[in-house]
Specification:
Beta-lactamase; five-stranded antiparallel sheet; 17% strand; globular
Length: 394
Amino acid sequence: MWRRGLLRVLAGLFCAVLTVAGAERTLAGPKLVFDIRTGAVLHAENADDPWYPASVTKLMTTYVALSAVRDGSIALDTLLTASQNAVAQPPSKIGIALGQSITLRNALNLLIVKSANDIAVVVAEGVGGSIPEFSAMMNATARRLGMTRSRFVNPHGLPDADQVTSARDMAILSRALALEFPESTRITRLPFVKIGDRTIRSHNALLGRYAGADGMKTGFICAAGFNIVASASRRGQRVAAVVLGENSPDERRIATERLLDLGFAAPRFGLKDRDTLHTMPRSGTADQPVNMRPQICGEKRNRPDGLPGLKEFSYSGPIVPVVFGPQLAYVPLPPSRPDWPSDAPVDEARIVVASTDPPASGDSDDAEAGDPSIPLPEPRPVRGNGLEYTGRAP
């Protein structure tokens, strides 16, 4: 009798484990790592599941803008003027003033480094004439590149239920950006941009921390979780990883580092025989994007109620897991730093971009001159200003 009871208990536990494992698979965000030169897929998880792109959308904005430069319809030194629509965008933003102008070159720098939503609209209106017209250019580009799961309705990635992508599509886009516009790496790998005495650092925590990291773009909205497209170069090889739907900036960075490690560890022989981004079998089963708002920004957001001291802790913001050496700790997310105030708008003449090229002979070799041999300071485990937007989810 007791044996039958024990078997029932064990069967129940086994079913519970399967249920939990299934839930984890459901909540696990799409991932993909690939070789940029060949397009060979080195690892993929649910790569075709639809997902909200958040600010990785700005890679498409950059691609469309650089395509317009290539076609001769606009130049990098063309001055773009901020409209009321651009000024009204929610953070993350620079705070450009109504009627103020900025070159397309510096707009793209701020678009990637700061992930500025007001600048994304400045670029879209300057290149396409309006948001709908620019969105049509984005969608036409997606179709031409073979991005079969993507649909764009805005240039910045702020919440919209109709704006979706997939890990495979973002990989296709990032590869096209890297191969067709190699100069884009000078933008995507920028560690900072200075406006006057203010230094705006990139949200990409891999820069200066992961060996060979050279771009590309992070993104966050509550519905999407923490996204990133990241690339790195070592020994003549460049690989890129797409990570969507992580629970915190630190988990996003760790997952990306592991994928890039996996990419560099893959045997170099036989890459031509691997599936490519366009030939890889369908990976994933979802038809609708997962809405991560409850676990990222809702009342039950990743908050371990049983941790010592939490009952007395009055902080009402998000609590996220952070890795300290071999240990996992849960810490409060600090409040965001204020955005550039509207009464002190960006001044085109005061923008200083960190160079990513080795200094020429006679050039200054300090950190601001962009000497890559000078290491950047270690990023803090969690940076409040990495939260780009926490508005209403789709």
